[in-house]
Amino acid sequence: DTEVTQTPKHLVMGMTNKKSLKCEQHMGHRAMYWYKQKAKKPPELMFVYSYEKLSINESVPSRFSPECPNSSLLNLHLHALQPEDSALYLCASSNRVPGELFFGEGSRLTVL
Amino acid sequence: AQSVTQLDSQVPVFEEAPVELRCNYSSSVSVYLFWYVQYPNQGLQLLLKYLSGSTLVKGINGFEAEFNKSQTSFHLRKPSVHISDTAEYFCAVSSLYTGTASKLTFGTGTRLQVTL
Predict the structure, then answer these.
(1) Min CA distance, A2 vs chain B (Å)?
(2) Rounded mean pLDDT of chain A?
């Protein structure tokens, strides 16, 4: 199983809503990532978890809150988002090969 | 700081023609270099990687890349493209590796458009 599964695939939310994006992998990888990708742009790193601990936070606004309940799961909690936060949110995982990330298909978020 | 520059935002090519997508990197230390592909409405997939050793790297789907330290380049090539190769291609450099986690810096991407 070499898949990273993200749910939901599409999400529409208002600026006052609270929602969560979920990511799951069963490859035994010990690092998991959240990236944000705007249209026609490269992915931008948001957070990295290594061994279930937050190791990189790229100065992301607090309205995005990551959580890693166990080594297979990664969540991104969303609250009080802005329309400019609309984007494709990509989850990835990796193990011991430098730079070899396995990406999910993404969750497309629209903030109204 | 490490960075990559993709010189072409779009590359149109006819099916069965060869293609080269250009990538230059900037780094003061040893580099790990990568090419990722993103098909429409999908996540990214690793095409190939250079970590060390042979400068000619072969990847999936018939792609290959050559690491050139003197020219600080890592260009991606395919001798004969197919319609299904139409996608966005990202060159990337790993600026941090902790033993499990990598911090990748992506280039701006090159849109490969293959037509009949």
Answers:
(1) 11
(2) 94
